[in-house]
Amino acid sequence: MRISARGTYLTPARLAWMTAALAAVLGLSLVGAALLGPVHVSLARALAGGDASPDRVILFRTRLPRVLLASVVGGSLGASGAALQGLLGNPLACPHVLGISGGAAVAGVVALVAGADAVSPLVPLAAFCGALASIAIVSGAARARGRTTPHAVLLVGVVFNALAAAVLMLVNALVSYTQAQGVLFWMMGSLSTQSYGLIAGSAVYSVVGLGWLVLHAHDLNLLTAGEEGAQQLGVDVERTRRSVFVASSLLVGAAVSMSGMIGFVGLIVPHLLRLILGPDHRLLLPASFLGGAAFLVWADTIARTVLAPAELPVGVVTALAGGPFFIFLLRRSLRRSVA
């Protein structure tokens, strides 16, 4: 089935089978990543053994929660990136550069320095509150005469993120060695093991956020024709922009509150899927959620296996992949502008 530049020929059948195919890829990725690691485990022994079986402990108490958390965080970042790129009309837009992750990281670090335990739920809660505050600051600073513009949001987000990074480095220079390790966690990103209950709650939250974005998929498609064209077709541009921005930011804040600052997932995955599947957000949003989940699962697998028994922060792996990709996109955009 041919798909136009605006995705108007997307059929329900194509939407269903493409989503199912990506879901299958994610399912296989979860199984494969859980079985990979510096220590070999047998699925058969893990299922047949008792609670004290080494294979069972490694697989179900250590690797599987981490793999599931990576899928939730990656899905949230991927869907947010797709929505923000469509909303701002800029393929270089990324949740990481809008300042939300920086604000969440600063709040999480402040909670750690104030004495909260690193595994305490107070730290993710503080980070989530920091994300909410960042949303208010960025959206408020980018608003003029009751309206926000894409360029203003990007500019304010970049400046706010730079300020947050400076605050993190300042705190890192002032705290003790032990507390500095917690600061590095937020700066580089890490998927430490969480409880199944917290992961399940985060998954529900992410799916609800994805559903919120999908409800605005048609409006996002119309916005690709330009703000004036979308208004003529009945889109309340300012309301759509505000709703999508808040929903995307809340997803990013929730992800950062559990994993620290993991950049470029929301840049790489949506852009590649847009090239493969087309720009229709009815398909692109769920595809970016599933693709982002699979991407971060494998990025974390590389992080914990490539230098085993040592372990890299997963944010380092995504940055090494995303930095050159960002430069490639920037140069291509510059060439098109010159042309």
In a few lines, what is going on in this structure?
The protein has 339 residues and is mainly α. It has 14 helices and 2 strands, in the order H-H-H-H-H-E-E-H-H-H-H-H-H-H-H-H.
Features:
disordered N terminus; two-stranded antiparallel ribbon; mainly alpha; 14 helices; single chain; ABC transporter involved in vitamin B12 uptake, BtuC; 339 residues
Task: Give an account of the 3D structure.
- With 339 residues, the chain is an all-alpha fold.
- It has one domain (12-338): ABC transporter involved in vitamin B12 uptake, BtuC.
- The chain is built from 14 helices and 2 strands, in the order αααααββααααααααα.
- The chain has a two-stranded antiparallel sheet.
- A hairpin with a 2-residue loop joins β1 (143-144) and β2.
- The longest helix is centred in the first third of the chain and has 35 residues, at 54-88.
- It is globular and about 65 Å long.
- The two termini are 32 Å apart.
- 46% of the residues are buried.
- Mean pLDDT is 84; it is low at 1-8.
How large is the count of helical segments? 14
Query: Sheet with the most strands?
Result: 2 strands, antiparallel
- Coarse morphology: globular
| Total number of strands | 2
